Amino acid sequence: MSTLLVPVKFPFHAMASNCEVQIFASSPEHAESIATEIIAEVKRVEQKYSRYLPDSVVSRINASAGSGSAINVDDETAALLDYANAAFLQSDGLFDVTSGVLRLAWDFKSKQVPSTSQLTELLELVGWRKIKWSKPSLTLSLPGMQIDFGGIGKEYAVDRAVGIGMKYSEASGLVNLGGDVRVFGKRPDGRAWSIGVAHPRKAGGVLAFLPINSGALATSGDYERFFELDGKRYCHILNPKTGWPVSELQSVSVYAESCLVAGTLATITMLKGAKLGERFLKDSKIPAMIVNADGRVSTLR
Questions:
Q1: Alpha carbons 298 and 288: distance in angstroms, whole number
Q2: pTM of the full structure
Q3: Alpha-carbon distance 67 to 72, whole Å?
Q4: One-letter-per-residue 3-state SS of 226-238
Q5: What digits encode the pLDDT tens for the residues 174-199?
Q6: Residue 288 in contact with residue 277, Cβ under 8 Å?
Q7: Which residues lie closer than 8 Å to 133 by C-beta, 6 or more apart?
Q8: For residues 175 and 42, what is the distance between their CA atoms, to the nearest angstrom?
């Protein structure tokens, strides 16, 4: 069966990000059919777990906070909660899906730094250990507590989407959700995919192009949502122990077989900071590219 010599590209918007699927297949029509399935899966994950949709699983869980009532979740959600627990333990409590409530103090549009009292009040609602989780039963113990899969949702959707693509052994392609990328199959020309890493200080710029034959590349950085005030940058990556944004690294890009794992490790590194973060990745033996606060780039292989 002949295969297209160039991939067919399908741009779309999901999870507040510009996204794209690229497919090598036997025909443009076949490529479109695969891409349609992939995009539908991304939309399914978004609708199921978006905190912005009142009927999502996350919204229903959060609405139960402080009621004393447990919510029973399905197997897919249970797997994500188990993963969140593992990430919390691996990060010494820095990767915490209950920390999304801190966004109530940080308004990146108004460019205002919250007061200490605001953060102190919200920090009372943060803490994975304050949740009662025993599959399939979940209880948010305090009124106002929330879980937020924003730190893993996009990466999880990439992996789910690639799972769809892998059903078609004769095809190959790439799924890119807002810069979190995973590839599947072998390109018919035998070349590696060249994945651009966003420049953290040049809007629309590319820091480097990295070759990938398989697996995923995910980036966490201080440039996605931020504001600057009095010469200081405040970004959306918040330390769940202090409530304050990270400041020691500009970005971290991690390669792993799974996009979910790559994204989690990148975010944990951002939260740990320059010295501890680099040591964390070295100990994990994970290939990565780190941009320090001064713009210096270091590569771990």
A1: 8
A2: 0.95
A3: 14
A4: EEEECCEEEECCE
A5: 999 999 999 999 999 999 999 999 99
A6: no
A7: 81, 85, 139
A8: 10
